[in-house]
Amino acid sequence: MGLFTFKGGIHPNDGKKLSMDKEIVKLDPKSPLVFPLSQHIGAPAKPLVKKGDRVLVGQKIAEAGGFVSANIHSSVSGTVKGIETRLTPGGSRVNSIVIENDEKYEEVDFKANTKPLEELSREDIINIIKEAGIVGMGGAGFPTHVKLSPKNKDDIDRIIVNGAECEPYLTSDYRRMIETPEKIVKGLKIVVSLFDKAKGIIAIEDNKPDAIKILREMVKDEEKLEVAVLKTKYPQGAERQLIYAATGRYINCKMLPADAGCIVNNIDTIYSIYEAVYEGVPLFTRVVTVTGDSIADPKNFLVRLGTNHQELVDAAGGFKTEPAKIISGGPMMGKAMFSLDVPIVKGSSAILCLSRDAVAESEPTDCIKCGRCVSICPGRVIPSQLADMAEAGEIDKFVANNGMECCECGCCSFICPAKRHLTQTIAGTRKLVLANKKK
Question: Against a cut of 0.90, is the pTM above it?
Answer without folding.
Answer: yes
